[in-house]
Amino acid sequence: MAKAVIATWKMALAGAERAMNILEKGGTAADAATEGVSLVEDEPSFHSVGYGGRPDRTGHVVLDGGFMDGDTLHFGAVASLEGFRSPVRIARSLIKGDANNFLVGEGAALYAETNGFEKRDNLTDEAREIYDREKERIKNLSAYDGHDTVCFLTLDEHGTLCAATSTSGLFMKEPGRVGDTPVPGSGFYADSETGAAAATGMGEEILKGALSYAAVSLMEQGYSATEAAEAALGRLETKLKKRNGCAQAMSLITLAKDGTWGVGTNVEFPFVTGDEENGVRLWIARPENGKTVIEAYEKEIG
After folding, report:
1. Which is nearest to 148 in space by CA: 130, 123, 166, 124?
2. Which residue range(s) make up the domain with 135?
3. Tens-binned pLDDT, residue by residue, of the chain (302 aa)
4. Please, which of 32, 57, 78, 241 could form a disulfide with 19 given CB 3.0 to 4.6 Å?
5. What is the CATH classification number for the domain harbouring 282?
6. CA 276, CA 272: separation in Å to the nearest integer?
């Protein structure tokens, strides 16, 4: 059985290496996805996830995360969580029950504290400086400024697919705002009998099309991972342009049950893949004439 990982953005490179190392040693897709995302959450130089994440309009760093087990279709999610180290670990722990799988705000924090998850003030000095510098021009900020969700899809030797996501959300977002990242079906979805998908970009746009579930549904109908990613994103983009005159930035990664992967995007989008044959590699995807063109990423990794 193939072992594979695909993850969003350059910041996932070290996490993908960790995930592949786990898979190559016979570890589970769940552990690989969790540890890959968690590494990104712990790195303060990445300003859209975890420690060092960019604040909301009131200066608070609040985090969202999601996790899905493709064998059972069980999921866990947290949103608007403040003061804890790893939303993806907390989200994963919530897949165990038949209810109470999605917790937000004070409820999510109470659960995390009660269950002994590590606390952390995620507002670093650098993030505070960025906030102080930018807060006076809130009205002129692009909705995409400082917002890159980290998403991991993993496949292990047993054929299990998992999806995991984490973000600090839109920079200068309104307090309480939640995007697609912790929402199963939109920000992530995994079905070990078919494939998995996860999205990054403007959450409100992605939510309008339940984008991750749409891609997995297409794979279930016989689409390849590449075809499903391009078609799901393309159909939503076309619909949004027809209804609203534009479609904001969105990117989608997919991983099929055979280990093949795909990407759909309407913006330039770096991503990372890993498998036993090729190791971990960094790529760049860009939209071109309704398709997604993918090339090896040759720029200096930063």
Report:
1. 166
2. 4-296
3. 799 999 999 999 999 999 999 999 999 999 999 999 999 999 999 999 999 999 999 999 999 999 999 999 999 999 999 999 999 999 999 999 899 999 999 999 999 999 999 999 999 999 999 899 887 765 554 544 555 899 999 999 999 999 999 999 999 999 999 999 999 999 999 999 999 999 999 999 999 999 999 999 999 999 999 999 999 999 999 999 999 999 999 999 999 999 999 999 999 999 999 999 999 999 999 999 989 999 999 754 44
4. 32
5. 3.60.20.30
6. 14
Q: Judge whether 302 lies within some domain.
A: no
Residue 251 lies in a domain: yes
Closest CA relative to residue 153, chosen from 1, 39, 7, 270: 7
Distance CA 218, CA 234 (A): 13
Token pair 């898979």 is found at 23
The residues near 146 (Cβ < 8 Å, ≥ 6 apart) are: 47, 48, 54, 130, 170, 171
Catalytic residue among 8, 34, 149, 160: 149
Question: Is residue 301, in this structure, part of any structural domain at all?
Answer: no
- Clarify whether 149 is annotated catalytic: yes
Q: What angle do CA 243, 244, 245 make, to 5 degrees?
A: 105
Tally of domains within the chain: 1
Q: Which amino acid is at 221?
A: Q
Residues in the chain: 302
Distance (Å) of CA 57 to CA 120, 136, 284: 20, 10, 32
Classify residue 234: in a domain, yes or no: yes
DSSP 157: T
